[in-house]
Amino acid sequence: MIINNVKLVLEDDVVQGSLEIEGGVIRAFAESPSSLPEALDGEGGWLLPGLIELHTDNLDKFLPRARR
């Protein structure tokens, strides 16, 4: 899958470009659009890695207490 015309959020920069994904893995990105007819148009939207919620202040309700 190729997605053109997106803002790619990188570690230290944001670039306008295209992204290639294969088998659920990012294979490549480029600042120029792909000319392949199957490329999707991202319509200038933001594309960033999935985020994971790590806020766990009530996690202790679900874990057994340690024996002393």
TrEMBL record:
Any GO MF annotation of the entry: hydrolase activity, acting on carbon-nitrogen (but not peptide) bonds
InterPro entries: Metal-dep_hydrolase_composite (IPR011059)
SUPFAM superfamilies reported for this sequence: Composite domain of metallo-dependent hydrolases
Gene3D superfamilies: Urease, subunit C, domain 1
Keywords, comma-separated and alphabetical: Hydrolase
UniProt name for this protein: Metal-dependent hydrolase involved in phosphonate metabolism
Organism for this UniProt entry: Citrobacter freundii
